[in-house]
Amino acid sequence: MSQDDTANTVVSFIAYFVLMVFGLITYFMSRPRSVYLVDYACYKPPPNLKVSCEKFLGYARLLAYYSEPSLNFLSKILEVSGLGDETYMPKTLHELPQDFSVSGARDETEQVIFGALDNLFSKTFVKPKDIGILVVNCSLFNPIPSLSAVIVQKYKLRDSIKSFNLGGMGCSTGVIAVDLAKNLLQVHRNTYAIVVSTENLTLDGYFGNNKSMLISNCLFRVGGAAILLSNKSQDKQRAKYKLVHIVRTHCGSEDKAYKCVFRDEDEAGKLGVSLSKTLMPVAGVALKTNITTLGPFVLPISEQLRYFLFPFANVKTYIPDFKLAFDHFCIHAGGKAVIDEMEKNLKLSPLAYIEAKGRMRKNHLIWQIALGSGFKCNSAVWVALKNVKPSSNDNNPWEDCIERYPVQSK
Description:
Blueprint: H1 3-30, E1 36-42, E2 50-51, H2 53-63, H3 68-81, E3 87-88, H4 91-94, H5 102-124, E4 131-137, H6 147-155, E5 162-166, H7 173-187, E6 192-198, H8 211-214, E7 224-230, E8 241-250, H9 255-259, E9 261-265, E10 271-275, H10 279-298, H11 301-309, E11 328-331, H12 336-346, E12 365-372, E13 376-384
Parallel strand pairs: 4-5, 4-6, 11-12
Antiparallel strand pairs: 1-7, 1-8, 2-3, 6-7, 8-13, 9-10, 12-13
């Protein structure tokens, strides 16, 4: 072999090697990064903020905003709402006269958000300065500066933080926030993301007599949660879950869907959120749209075939058996009627608090479903990375009452 041939061979080999290395780098750089849920924390208010159904009705009567028929209606809704006597109202609504100021609303929200985040930082040993992404969602309360800025200021987050504040998107925004954080974690390497979800009652109770708006007073109470997400490979060892899929569907182009949950003034000028009688049918359509999109990702082929062939059979409708795909179902607490309808349509047994009861096992698949105004249905699929143990007594808000749930129907 001549020197020229040898040189050409070496050059070709180097070029091939460089291309191969470049191809491998491109592959590893462009492939989706795994997103891990390291841990989460819920906020539990102090005992003095607890409000039983009887106490709530007592407050409603003292306010003198409601007519007697409205008070009777509130009582009936509370009976079927699924709320028990261990829910909480903000401090501002326990006081007389009640404080409906922006300052009071800030106090409520800061107590919830800081309580959840303090708990989360304590559980995960992550320092606030290590957080690279922050997503906060609260539909009805959007102060200036934003709630995300409130968190940045409180915890002195770094000046390069990617922060977002989602408002007006309803009860399904938690999944939307996770989706946003996931997409950001695909771009920003080796970082943590925090998602905070809450709502505010101080400014957003309804004080009129429109029945469709009174219902929301019986569904919302003080609460909030914060989760820590990571794209760091080393966090796989300590994380509870890995994110598998997110599917978001929107039915807002239909008038009935768009208007079934609507914030507006009533005929007397009182601001409130109305829940239309078409809500449950709309929710059913939204769920069907979502599961049609999600099904091919998670269902066995045999079940997919049954679903797509049912129109040719003498069957009105066919709901795929998602129990063949998932071990657990996490349905947002948008009212007992929503949960009951989900249980019925998906043929589920009564829902329980799976993780708090220590029933989550390694490789279990969880389907998280959320419905929200607009009208939206959003799904997230998670896989447990280990046998998930309940949080310690100091960090588990369910510790003192978990054995009483789920409440058996009489």
